[in-house]
Amino acid sequence: MRGRGLLIFLATLVVLLSALSSLRTSSEKKETKQTAPATTTSAAAATKPAPGAVSAVMPADPKVKLAPGQQLTLQIRSASPDVAAISELGLKAPVGPDVPGEIVLIAPSSGSFDVTLQVAKRSVGEIVVGD
Q1: 49 and 26 in a common domain
Q2: Which of 6, 83, 93, 108 has its CA 20 to 30 A from that of 114?
Q3: Range(s) of the domain holding residue 93
Q4: Euclidean distance between CA atoms 20 and 92, whole angstroms
């Protein structure tokens, strides 16, 4: 019975990953259409965050402070398959040993937002926006 539950969880995780991949691909296509023509850049420049943007890795960075409107690229790590969530903002991403979960957001006006692992039912960090 436990094997069946694990199989259902893994199947759900695969479906979530597929959906995330297709969403990311379609949003990348939209971004490409809206930006200026591409220029040749180095790999380092291509991965460089926008000015004022913040990058963090949880649980290594347990508390991330942002100003309202600031962009955050958050990578969430987990030793077992799980789903990382920022429930208050309605954001989720699959995570696991071979699945680096990533959530990109623009900070809302203010507040404190827990980042949790839904299956493990534990907090991995907090995002604090404002003073």
Answers
A1: no
A2: 6
A3: 45-131
A4: 10
Claim to verify: residue 126 and residue 99 sit in the same structural domain? yes
Give the pLDDT confidence of 40-50 residue by residue, as tens digits: 233 333 344 45
On whether both 85 and 109 belong to a single domain, the answer is yes
Spatial distance between the Cα atoms of 60 and 56, rounded to a whole number of angstroms: 8
CA 39 to chain centre: 27
Q: Model-level pTM?
A: 0.61
Helix (H, G, I), strand (E, B) or coil at 116: strand
49 strand-pairing partners: none
Give the neighbor-by-neighbor strand order of the sheet with 63-66: 63-66, 122-129, 111-117, 82-86, 91-95
Q: What percentage of the chain carries pLDDT values higher than 70?
A: 60
